[in-house]
Amino acid sequence: MTHSLAPAPDARADARAGHGAAAAAVRAARLEESLGDPHDPANPHGIAALLAADRQSEPPYATEELLAAAGVGAEFVPAEFGGRLTRADLLVTALRPVFRRDLALGFGYGITSLFASAAVWAAGTARQRAETAGLLLAGGRAAIVHHEVAHANGILRHEFTAAPRPAGSGYTLRGRKDLIMNAARAGALVVYARTSPERSARSHSVLLVRPEEADGLSRLPRVMTSGMRGGLFSGLRFDGCELPADTLVGRPGEGVALALRTFQVNRCIIPALAVSAADTVLHAAVRSVTIGRTKPMARRWHKPLAGVFADLLAADAMARAALRSLSLLPERAHVLAAAVKYVVPDLLRENLEELASVLGAHGYDHGSPQYGPLDKLVRDLPVAGLGHAGTAACQAVIVPQLAHLAERSWFRAEEPPPALFQEDAELPPLDYRLLGAAGGHDFLSATLAGAAARLETSRAVGGHIGALAELAESFVGELRALREQCLARPALPAALVLSDRYALVLAAGAVLGVWEGQDGGDPFLADPAWAVLALTRLGGRLGIAVPELPDGCVAQVLEELVRRYRAGRSCDLAGTAYGGYGTEAAA
C-alpha cells in the first residue's frame, strides 16, 4: 500500500511569506496547534498514536500527511530556492513542535532530507538545486547514502563504488547497502560513492540519483530496528547502474570535503532537536511527582529534577551557540559542531537515566501518552546520533586540532561578536558554500576566559554571582591544564580523554555566554542561579573543584521548572508554549 504525501498547494508562496525569527516562531505555533494536544488519546497526531505506530513498526502516516500539507518540506530548502531555510537556529525553532512529540517522526519525515540535500545546496548545479528544491517543496523526500567509516554500525557499514566511464560520459554505480532511512520512499538519493580505491581525501564523490531513472537499481527488504522503528530502514543495490555525467554534485573527488563542510550543520541540528524530545520526558517526570498531590513535592526529587532542567539549558546553550555560529562565523564553526554532537547526546542519556529514577513504575507504562516517551527516546536517541560511530567521527575532527588550538587559539583568540548569544540579534543567512573545515578555531574558550575575567570582582560578593565567578575561574583553570597537556601532543588514548574534557569546557563557555547575553527580558535566565547549577554539574563530570551550591539555588531552578510545567512552557532557553501541558497541569 502506498501513502502519498500531497504537497501543500501554496507551499512556495507561504515559504516566501517571511524568513526571520518572528516568522519561524509563528510557523512553530501554527504547527503546534495543528498537531493538537499531545496527551489526548483520541488525537490522531498525539503521542498515543505515535507510540502505537512505533509498536507496529510503521510510520505515523496520518501525521506525516499533516506535515506535508503544512509545507514542512519548505523548511529544508534555502530561501533563495523558494524555501524557508535561512538560518539553522530558526529551522530548529520551526521544527521543535515535531520533535517534542517524537524524535523518530522528525527524522522519518524531513530532517534527513536536509542532511541529504546539504551537498546539493553547497556544490550542486543550478539544475540540481532547482530539482531538489522542487521535490522537497512538493512534500517529497531525499535520502542520504553514507560512505563507509571506521567503527561502522549498520547505517555506516558498506558503501557504493562509482567507476568513471570513458570520455567523461558518467559513472557506473555498483554495490549494496542494507540500512538507509527512507530508501524506499525517497525521490532523490544523495550517494557518497567511492570513486578512487586509494585512502585519500579525494577518494569519494557525491552523486545525485533519481531512483526512477536508475536502471540496475534494486530495492532490498526492509530491516527492523530497535530504535526509530517507524523509520522505514531498507537497503539498495546497484548492479552496474549507468549514470550520466550531470549526476555528479560538485567536483570529482570532492565527497570527503563536502561531508566535512556540510555534516557540521547536521551535528548542530540533531542535538538541538534532541533537547526538545528530552524536554517532553522532563515534563512527564514533573507530572509524575506533582499530579494529584496536595502537599509539596518530595524533597528527594528536588535535585534530580532541577539538575536535569539545568542540563537541558546548558545543552541548549551549547547547541544554540553552534547553530548561530554557522551563520555568524561559518569558517570557524567546525570544531564546536563536532563537540556539540557528542556532548549533548551524552548529557541527555544521563538525564534520561535520572528521570527514569524519578518516574519509577510510570517509566514502564510504555503505551501511555504521558510516560511512554521515556522508553521510546531511550531507544531512538542512539540512532539519531549514529551511536559510537557518530562519536568517533566527532572525535576524529577534534583530536587532530587539539595541539593547534593549544598553540594558536586558547587564551589568544578574540571573543565572538555579542550577537552570537543575543537571541534577537540579526544574523547573516546560512550559506553552505561558506562553511569551513577544521582550521583550529575556538571562540567559546575566549568567551569562557572573558566571562571569568569580568566576573572576577564578583567573587567576594558571595551568593549566586560569587559562585558563578568561582566556577568560571575553575573552568579557566581546566582550560589551562588542557593547554599544557595538549601541547605535549599525547598519543591517541590520552588524546581522546582530553577531547572529552575539552568539549565540556566548551559547554561551560556557552553557558556563560548565554547568561551574559541576557537583556533582562527573562528574569530567570538573567539571574545566575541556573548557570551556577549547570556549571556545577558540568564541573562534577570533569572532576574539577566546584563550590558548594549557594542557598536557594536548587529551589530557584526547581520553582522555574514547576512554573513552566504548570504554564505549559518548554524547558529550553526559549520557554515557548508547549501543546497540552498547561491545560493538563491547570486541571
Q: In words, what does this structure look like?
A:
The chain has 587 residues and is α+β, with helices and mostly antiparallel strands. The chain contains 20 helices and 8 strands. It has helices at residues 11-15, 21-35, 47-55, 61-69, 88-101, 103-123, 126-137, 255-290, 302-328, 334-359, 373-384, 387-398, 402-408, 444-455, 463-487, 492-516, 523-526, 529-542, 553-567, 581-586; strands spanning 142-145, 160-164, 170-181, 188-194, 204-209, 217-222, 233-244, 248-249. Helix 10 runs antiparallel to helix 11 (373-384). It is globular. The model is unreliable at 1-17 (pLDDT under 50).
Question: How would you characterize the largest beta sheet?
Answer: 4 strands, mixed
Beta strand count: 8
Structural class, by secondary structure, is alpha+beta
The level of helicity is 40-55%
Q: What portion of the residues fall into strands of 2 or more residues?
A: 5-15%
Spans of at least 5 consecutive residues with low confidence: 1-17
How would you concisely characterize the structure shown here?
With about 575 residues, the protein is α+β, with helices and mostly antiparallel strands.
